[in-house]
């Protein structure tokens, strides 16, 4: 069964959890560069999530577009880091487990709010999507984006590269108030409506500054305007600054309770973002 068909199954679909904060726990810096410098650590995290019985694994290629790599002076090859990212996820994926190629923000604001031309961003997203598709992903996920226009830009690039592959899009919301809002002020309904019209295969919310239960309120807004599958990947609670470090300390049990609220609100695909671990994903698996 291809991923497009799988997304339409009636029972909920389970995705994996955080990669970045798990790498940090392993004593490494967050980021896709670990695909090249510490592939064994990335593979171990993929394997731990696969052991939870997930349906979908996500590549460790978040922000591994040319713009982000060059502006952050990472000194790594765009093609190599994305290719190896796919290889590592596929190595952990058992039969019947799908792999999504992960794309995210460029780290710069699009014009007129910043100096990044949309055409330049589109070229970078198209390049990354092409590498991910050539490496054999089953679909794309565009996530942790704060600007609807940037999400649309990435979606169009993915659709241009491989129109037959599903493209899931989730934005990061800062507040559940006023219909749910991203940092750029985009409402949950507008995001769901516009992305649906643009050809997304699923829409939803991830990361941001919301608890899982608050994220459920965003899902309710989206469900009112789209018939697409809705994906939710909350953080393990609100981020807190403790001795200069960002901490997410929601227990797996409390996290699963919040996911229950998201499912009741209309979510169909569930997973975790920052601070979540295999224990959190296992708790969702037990719930399902």
What share of residues is helical?
40-55%
- Helices and strands, in order, run as HEHHHEHHEHEHEEEHEHEEEHEH
Cα gyration radius (Å)? 17 Å
Strand ordering within the main sheet: 1-12-9-8-5-4-3-2
The CATH superfamily label reads: Homocysteine-binding-like domain
Number of domains: 1
CATH class: Alpha Beta
In brief:
With 288 residues, the chain is α/β, with parallel strands linked by helices. The chain has helices at 3-6, 20-25, 34-37, 39-50, 66-71, 78-92, 118-135, 148-161, 188-197, 212-223, 252-265, 278-287, and strands at 13-14, 56-58, 98-103, 139-145, 167-171, 173-175, 181-182, 202-206, 230-233, 240-242, 245-247, 269-270. The protein has a single domain (3-287), classed as Homocysteine-binding-like domain (TIM Barrel, Alpha-Beta Barrel), CATH 3.20.20.330.
Fold and architecture overview:
- Helices cover 43% and strands 16% of the residues.
- The chain is of the alpha/beta class and 288 residues long.
- 54% of the residues are buried.
- The protein is globular.
- It has a single domain, classed as TIM Barrel, CATH 3.20.20.330.
- The mean pLDDT is 97.
- The chain contains twelve helices and twelve strands.
- The longest helix has 18 residues, at 118-135.
- The two termini are 21 Å apart.
- Helix 4 (39-50) packs parallel to helix 6, helix 6 (78-92) packs across helix 7 (118-135) and helix 9 packs across helix 10 (212-223).
- An eight-stranded parallel beta sheet has the order 1-12-9-8-5-4-3-2. Strands 6-7 form a two-stranded antiparallel sheet.
